[in-house]
UniProtKB/TrEMBL annotation:
UniProt key word Metal-binding: no
Top-rank taxon, per record: Eukaryota
Stretches of the chain forming a coiled coil according to its record: none
Domain ZP: 603-873
Key words of the record: Disulfide bond, Glycoprotein, Signal
Protein name: ZP domain-containing protein
Secretion signal, residue range per the UniProt entry: 1-21
Amino acid sequence: MGQVLLLLGWLYFSIHVSVQAEQMSSRNDLHPECLGNVVRLRVGPLLEEVDIIVNDTEIVQLSPRLAAQCGFRFKFDNTGNAILFASLLNCFSHSMDDETFNLFGQLRVSGDHFTAGYTCSYTWASREILCDHTYMEVSVRKTLPDIPFISKQRVGGRKGRNSDPRRRSKAVAPGYRMTKVVFMPSNKIMKTEEVQRRGYAIANTPTRLVLRSPHEEEETYLQTVAGIPMRLLSTSTFFEQKWLVTRIDTVAACPTQGSVAFTSDLITWYMPRQIDPLLSSDSFTMLEVYMGVDGKRLDDKEMAARNYSVSVTEVHIIVKIPVGAIGGYYKSHIQDYQYFSAYTIEPMLEMLWIEEDAHEDTRYKVLFPITTPLVARPPQVHNYTPLEGTPEQQVFMLKLGTFNLDVVLLNITFSTGLLTIAECNARGFNVQEEISEDDSSKTFSVEVPFLDPVVLQEKSLEQGVTSFTLHLIYGMAVLPEYNTFSHPAVVNSVLMNIVPPSITGICDQDNFYIIVNYENQAPLFEIIIGGWLLTSDLAEQYVTEGESRITLTVPFSARETVFESIQPSSVRSRLDVSLLNPFTNSTMKDFSLGCSFPKTLIECLSNGTMTALALKVASAPGLNPRQLTLADRTCGPIYSDDRFAYFQFTINSCGTTNKFIDNGILYENEISLPDELKLKTALGVDEEYHLMVSCYYLANITQNLAFNNRPSNTEPSAEMRSDILVIMKIATDSSYRTFHEVEDYPVVRYMRRPLHIEVEITGSTDPEVKLILDHCWATNDKDRTSKPRWNLIINGCENPEEPYRVMFHQVFADSRVNFPAHMKRFEVQMFSFAKEVDILRDQLTKIFIHCDVFICDSNSPAGGFCREQCVNKENNSKRGQRHVEDTSVPRFHVSSGLILGYVKIWKSKSFVKK
Ligand SMILES: *[C@@H]1O[C@H](CO)[C@@H](O)[C@H](O)[C@H]1NC(C)=O
Ligand SMILES: *[C@@H]1O[C@H](CO)[C@@H](O)[C@H](O)[C@H]1NC(C)=O
Ligand SMILES: *[C@@H]1O[C@H](CO)[C@@H](O)[C@H](O)[C@H]1NC(C)=O
Ligand SMILES: *[C@@H]1O[C@H](CO)[C@@H](O)[C@H](O)[C@H]1NC(C)=O
Ligand SMILES: *[C@@H]1O[C@H](CO)[C@@H](O)[C@H](O)[C@H]1NC(C)=O
Ligand SMILES: *[C@@H]1O[C@H](CO)[C@@H](O)[C@H](O)[C@H]1NC(C)=O
Ligand SMILES: *[C@@H]1O[C@H](CO)[C@@H](O)[C@H](O)[C@H]1NC(C)=O
């Protein structure tokens, strides 16, 4: 099987269709697309030159020059991806019949091998002209004469010359040899070998003659067609047989960049409608006009979607493409350190016309990359830093743009030095690449906190502001060439100076009030109260917010407080507050407020119950209040927690002691830890906790008092009696039927008249209870201990001495008196108390009567004195014994109101009224 593609001297290799190659075709790595007389292969990323391996052994470096000569072209998009365009008639293509073409070989890129194979079928027009970016190619159907005479056959020859239609249909006559080529208009004659050597390509396939020339080869020339500058290649190729010589003329004409006009948003490409150098007559019919991109035709719908348009006028075919339209791309360029952008698109125009008198059709195809002029696009820094909040919260937010997709951000240089993007992000600058919605451009965003050391701060005290300045230089590169460039920027923000928050506080009798003022700053701190973070839950409980102030209202006994000391009538409590910077965990402010709150932690209830609240104090940090007890270790708190222990007990239980003081009884107990639980401090010293609990019960006519006369050792506590009251009344006369009421006081009495006194227990229905008057006396002053003092009853018996003679009156039951034993009556002379001087001067004498009384239960085994008021008034020796203190018997004090004694009838009305 002979070689079909005629390879001439310059080509040192050829293609064999081998079995191996067939197998390769099954794995078409490069996705070939047959686009008429052109094949398109997507090669992928490609940064270096490519080798083609043909015949599995021959390695051919596809230099740009060889590629143009052989009908290959690489096109790179902006990301460095390559597309290979190959003419179906390229040097390495293989065809048996000029209808089906294939190529099997490999591409070698950076040591990687790609299988490069395609099979494409194509039906040729009589003449095909292909204008590629790097070459022009013309192929014509060969119809060499088989009759022995010298003739000329012109295909695409000059106008006005006729060709013989009969010959066109005939097959190529065998035996012809291509001998020489004459280039027009220079008339330079070259042998075919020389043609190849000079960089042109010429091929003689079974049916066609192919001529190809890189643009701007020596023998090409410029010509203006319909105002459009075009480059032409015009040749006559001579074929010789033994006796015959024949010639085929070919002309190719391709547009140059001069055919394009630009505005800022539109590309307009003009092509002559009638390409005169290619026509042999005036009458031709345009059969088809197609537009496409990257070698591929587009239908009307696609054209409209992309806003492309093709219009045909009398003279021109006009292609319009909006700058930025789909199908093209923007590419970045750096010139003089400036950023430029250009838009590139490769439209294709395809025409088919027929010359009527020649009956020959011509397919004309142009692949025409267009790049707009460079447009300067200086990057802009958009500062969208929000200006609110504190410097801690503030972040410079910058966007740099707009760039084409082929730009990458490499690094940013700050005042402190260069940081790569990875370093920026590690530092929290959040550098992001943002692609526009239509995928056509990108911006770079960066966020720099105001307090980062790369930001310069300048505080102006007199203006009360701080200015934050960020200097930065963006370092970027354009890919894939890696052309670097940079863009400097300075951004500035001015913030009000930070006024540090302040804390003040006051107390009332129940609460702490802590006021945190934060002036012009949002509250950028956390509040810690008593070691607890002020969470939203706590805040709900305590916080009232005002304008730039927070008020905390914290009860004196809240969990967050500390008790410093406990006094009988007050508790000293302390609240510690601190403000924390949440960014650094450092304390911004510490504040402590200690106040004494007037609180009585001990209650003395009238029914003889005492309550005490023991608090854990700061000086006993290890104390567990649950372990506290009263003097009797079996008496623990009825309620307790980490900070409190609440005790409730009766005065005759839990080891409570009592003693008489003045006219009252003092009950005492102590709250402490059992010895075995005494706290040891780190120093080994006992930490003592003692809380004295005492109740002083006054015995007077208005004081309610509960009592229990059973011995205290009969615990647990005996039942208590209901309220008992001891009262003293003055009777109007000796009948003891009417009495002076409370509102009658002061009672006024003539000095020589007797005073009738009654002392009574009320509130008891126990007939066994007996009232005993132990001591009774008179004073001039309300104070029962004042001097002078006139003793009336001593140790239960009447004072035997004159003039204080007291007379007891026996009490009998009657309508008023239910229990005679509950009552004592006695009579005393008023003059007893007056000094002679006072009487002479008509002075008033103030008198108060006081008694100390016992209340005895006749059933109780108490001392004998309880049985009678005065056991034996004559037996003085017995009286002495009665002084034995028996503290188990309740003793009460009772006093009269003011009694005024006078000698004469009173003169002053006003006084009487009073
Ligand atoms: C193709 O390869 C075969 C076998 O390696 C070799 O014999 C032949 O010469 C090669 N053809 C060319 C044109 O180099
Ligand atoms: C086409 O042009 C119209 C009108 O100028 C415009 O609205 C539309 O966005 C364009 N379409 C494309 C894909 O550019
Ligand atoms: C930083 O970016 C610039 C481009 O402006 C580049 O020239 C330089 O090599 C880059 N430096 C580093 C360390 O990446
Ligand atoms: C601050 O302290 C808290 C609790 O100790 C901790 O969880 C947090 O991570 C700390 N924050 C900083 C910035 O150190
Ligand atoms: C005494 O009064 C208090 C308060 O009213 C009550 O809680 C307590 O039980 C009473 N004690 C006795 C022994 O009645
Ligand atoms: C009796 O006791 C009450 C309450 O303690 C007190 O207010 C009052 O002054 C006392 N009366 C006399 C006469 O002492
Ligand atoms: C006085 O007391 C003594 C001693 O208790 C007693 O012996 C004597 O009888 C008493 N005198 C009278 C009159 O009761």
